[in-house]
Amino acid sequence: MRYLILGSGPAGIAAAKAARKLDKDAEVILATEEHAAPYLRPLLPDFVSGERELSGVADPQGKDLADLGIRFSGGKRARRVDAARNRVAFSDGTEETYNFLCVATGGRPILPLALMGAPGSFLFLNSLGDAQRVRERAMRSDTTVVYGPGYLGIEAARAMRKLGNEVVWINPGLPRFGNPISGEVEVRVTDRLRARGVKVHEGTEIADVTDVDGRIFEVVTAGGRTIRCHLIVVATERLPSIGFLEGSGVKAGAGILVDEYLRTNVSNIYAAGDCAEVFDINRRESRINFGWRSAVKQGQLAGENMAGGGQVYIKNAEDYFGLLYGPPLNERVGA
Ligand SMILES: Cc1cc2nc3c(=O)[nH]c(=O)nc-3n(C[C@H](O)[C@H](O)[C@H](O)COP(=O)(O)OP(=O)(O)OC[C@H]3O[C@@H](n4cnc5c(N)ncnc54)[C@H](O)[C@@H]3O)c2cc1C
Fold first, then answer.
1. Residue owning the nearest CA to atom 2 of ligand 1
2. 103, 292, 293, 320: residue to mutate for ligand 1 pocket, most atoms within 8 A of CB
3. Whose CA is nearest to atom 53 of ligand 1?
4. Where along the chain do its domains lie?
5. Which among 4, 49, 102, 105 is the best mutation to test ligand 1's pocket, defined by most ligand atoms within 8 Å of the CB?
6. Distance between CA atoms of 112 and 107, rounded to whole angstroms?
7. Is domain 111-236 classified as CATH 3.50.50.60?
8. What is the mean pLDDT of residues 19-26?
9. What is the pLDDT at residue 71?
10. b/e map 228-256, b = 16+ CB within 10 Å
């Protein structure tokens, strides 16, 4: 038996380990576009701010993969899934076959339209590679514009300020799905950021960006303000990273549609974590449950079910976005 798991986030790791646990003789392959060893994504802002070093963001769940006989295959970005031939083609030209496939490719941040024409002006804050680039460039910057709503915007603004940058946070305050914090907490934390010197522009958009001299950029907001900066950090909502499934026959809405067993409409393909739109048998509806904890639970279940487990996913309150690592948001911003 050959289990192929795509993505080395919490869902992918949990799926690989669960499949291994139930099927001791199987081949288990964890193929991911990332080159880095698994890490704790929620701690990336602490890495950017200098509060943690690289070793402090390593994901303990990813440490014993080799000992468990799980093959970690980095630098493999899935490009196409051929569900009829049980094959995944990767962008480096290689292929992997499978008996069971688990898609756990998470999400990617949304890029605002105005930034599309100014590629040198911005960096995302989503992966470890992003965090390394942001940290490195922030060292050479005085002023950073952070763009993004809610929790991710707050965390990015906090980290950049802690690093010593002048920070202007543009919070579009868009209606968003997977909103991880209440409005009340957001208001309180935003006040704390202000008290720490972060300038906040709420309810506006980036309308335009001009490259002044390759080092300085001029950001114009929808409200007509102009902000000069050295860097724009994009910390926006993540949408499921599932484009490579086009043409595979696997059904998707906003995310990959799975039933209560985490199985797609193709019987040997499962999906888990931020890329999956899971059927909730109690509410009789499908939705994406963003968050680390939910990804671990779904990954584990998908892994077990691929290996014959037959368990149903029951959502509960703890499955939502949880602050699992480090102090709660309030304390972080106060620190
Ligand atoms: C800055 C930041 C802070 C956060 N803080 C928190 C927090 O405090 N609490 C919380 O609950 N959640 C937090 N989150 C969200 C949390 O990290 C995600 O919900 C969680 O990582 C989802 O896990 P996942 O395994 O589904 O996907 P991911 O962790 O996104 O992992 C997906 C993996 O798949 C890989 N991949 C993508 N496309 C392909 C492809 N085509 N081929 C191969 N590999 C691919 C990706 O590179 C990645 O390794 C935060 C997110 C960010 C960005």
1. 42
2. 292
3. 126
4. 2-42+59-108+239-319, 111-236
5. 105
6. 16
7. yes
8. 97
9. 98
10. ebbbbbbbbbbbbbbebbeebebebeebb
Q: What is the pLDDT of residue 290?
A: 87
Cα 181 from chain centroid (whole Å): 17
**Nearest Cα to 169, choosing from 156, 178, 180, 151?**
156
Mean pLDDT of the chain: 93
Question: In this predicted structure, what is the pLDDT of residue 326?
Answer: 65
Does this model's pTM top 0.85? My answer is: yes
What residue owns the CA closest to ligand 1's atom 27?
106
Phi, psi of 206 (to 5 degrees): -85, 120
What's at 223, amino acid-wise?
A: G
Q: Give pLDDT tens digits for 185-209.
A: 888 999 999 999 999 999 999 999 9
CA–CA dist 6, 30 (Å, integer)? 6
Q: Helix (H, G, I), strand (E, B), or coil: what is residue 317? A: helix
Class of domain 2-42+59-108+239-319: alpha beta
Cα distance between residue 40 and residue 25, in whole Å: 29
Nearest CA owner, ligand 1 atom 12: 291
